[in-house]
Amino acid sequence: MIELLSIALKHSNIILNSIFIGAFILNLLFAFTIIFMERRSANSIWAW
């Protein structure tokens, strides 16, 4: 029973890690879009 629980926890950790990595990459893309693709003004940084 303990082995089954340990396998389930490892599987859920893989899923959570992939979700967090995906969210981090999306955050970087949004930051790049807002800061560099918007008008070249210092005020666009505050939108992020």
TrEMBL record:
It comes from the Bacteria. The chain crosses the membrane at residues 14-36. Keywords: Membrane, Transmembrane, Transmembrane helix. This is Cardiolipin synthase. It comes from Staphylococcus aureus. The lineage of its organism: Bacteria, Bacillati, Bacillota, Bacilli, Bacillales.
